């Protein structure tokens, strides 16, 4: 598995954008040595009936501020997608307002009545379990190659001294099809590959509908959405978190924000693990039957000129049960620029973020350094820059 401690998630097509050389440079250690190192599958490690996990997985700095009191636990908003497009004006306006509040105050919400067939969702749940149950000799055929992120492995795990996350992932670019990795996608086992194809198209439709609703309620012109997103791009990361004898000492995925526009997450297991940062504490997001969890990424915060928030989140693990999730990342096409939508910028609200090309945005995201957790902080236009 390959990684770097600079960031947790890119969720995009950077290897298909002419950035291969720049990314390979960022995959090297400070001393110039190659950082790409394959480490053991966490699922295989967990099979050893450990009483204590290896030191490389122990994190001493996990933020313990979790809201566990049922009476005080804030509830992540729930949005009915069908109501966003209701013919009843009152129903539609009420749901649009809920979407706006959820996006502005939370940056996270669950979506019900999303239109993706329950049968297809069930096939995906079955398929991802079978995918991670493949014998290692079959997984090896789908393993990440050096300098790439697609396939089985860990995202950005490469330094021999780096602390590892308690997770195995399968990462793949799904849409548009010409960006797919020729080594990975064609070799995904059937019938899961067919189900993944259909699911990807359906979830892209969900993401686009949500963006359409957001644009309407925030006052963004349709032309801006079309100009900023183009055909769009989509990637998928399937996360497998084995049971762990020391769940309080490890982390499934470190706290991070997503570098894309929208993330649509299917919680495959009825096991809690996803937590979001809200009002200074970590709030669990319990799996809701037949729902997707949607969160705003850095790109959408930039496009909405700060109106909607990209929020830190993380994944914890369970001592007894495995947890699986499917994260689908939707972002702009590789052509064009990322910046505040022109219709959301004016004398009363100047641009809060710089505008840069899509390739430059992702190059900066993958190579960010220093203590700033979110690359978006580096793109903010300071007040003095706005007023002078």
UniProtKB/TrEMBL annotation:
* Pfam families xrefs: 2OG-FeII_Oxy, DIOX_N
Domain (Fe2OG dioxygenase): give its ranges.
232-332
Natural source organism = Acacia crassicarpa (northern wattle)
Sequence similarity? Belongs to the iron/ascorbate-dependent oxidoreductase family.
What the entry lists under Gene3D superfamilies is as follows: B-lactam Antibiotic, Isopenicillin N Synthase, Chain
Quote one Gene Ontology molecular function term. oxidoreductase activity
Name under which the protein is recorded: Fe2OG dioxygenase domain-containing protein
Alphabetical list of InterPro entries matching this protein: DIOX_N, IPNS-like_FE2OG_OXY, IPNS-like_sf, Oxoglu/Fe-dep_dioxygenase_dom, Plant_2OG-oxidoreductases
Could you list this entry's UniProt keywords, alphabetically sorted.
Answer: Iron, Metal-binding, Oxidoreductase, Vitamin C
Q: What superkingdom heads the lineage?
A: Eukaryota
């Amino acid at each position: 598995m390959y990684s770097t401690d600079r960031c947790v998630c890119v969720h995009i097509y950077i290897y298909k954008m002419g950035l291969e050389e720049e990314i390979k440079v960022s995959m090297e250690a400070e001393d110039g040595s190659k950082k790409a190192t394959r480490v053991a599958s966490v699922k295989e490690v967990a099979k050893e009936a450990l009483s204590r996990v290896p030191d490389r997985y122990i994190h001493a700095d996990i933020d313990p501020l979790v809201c566990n009191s049922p009476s005080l636990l804030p509830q992540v908003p729930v949005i009915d997608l069908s109501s966003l497009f209701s013919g009843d004006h009152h129903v539609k306006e009420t749901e649009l307002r809920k979407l706006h509040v959820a996006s502005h105050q939370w940056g996270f919400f669950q979506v019900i009545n999303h239109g993706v067939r329950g049968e297809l969702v069930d096939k995906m749940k079955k398929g991802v379990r079978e995918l991670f149950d493949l014998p290692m000799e079959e997984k090896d055929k789908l393993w990440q190659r050096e300098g790439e992120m697609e396939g089985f492995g860990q995202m950005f795990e490469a330094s021999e001294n780096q602390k590892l996350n308690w997770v195995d992932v399968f990462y793949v670019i799904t849409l548009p099809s010409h960006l797919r990795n020729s080594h990975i996608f064609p070799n995904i086992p059937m019938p899961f590959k067919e189900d993944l194809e259909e699911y990807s198209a359906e979830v892209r439709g969900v993401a686009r509908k949500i963006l359409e609703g957001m644009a309407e309620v925030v006052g963004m012109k349709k032309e801006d959405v079309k100009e900023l997103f183009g055909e769009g791009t989509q990637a998928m990361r399937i996360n497998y978190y084995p049971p762990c004898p020391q769940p309080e000492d490890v982390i499934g995925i470190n706290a991070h924000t997503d570098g894309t526009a929208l993330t649509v997450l299917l919680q495959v297991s009825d096991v809690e693990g996803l937590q979001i940062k809200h009002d200074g504490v970590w709030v669990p997001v319990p799996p809701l039957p037949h729902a997707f969890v949607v969160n705003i990424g850095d790109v959408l915060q930039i496009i909405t000129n700060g109106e909607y928030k990209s929020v830190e989140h993380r994944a914890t693990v369970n001592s007894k049960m495995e947890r699986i999730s499917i994260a689908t990342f939707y972002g702009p096409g590789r052509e064009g620029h990322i910046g505040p939508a022109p219709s959301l910028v004016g004398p009363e609200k100047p641009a809060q973020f710089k505008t840069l090309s899509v390739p430059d945005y992702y190059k900066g995201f993958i190579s960010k350094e220093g203590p700033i957790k979110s690359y978006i902080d580096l793109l903010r236009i300071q007040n003095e820059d706005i007023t002078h």
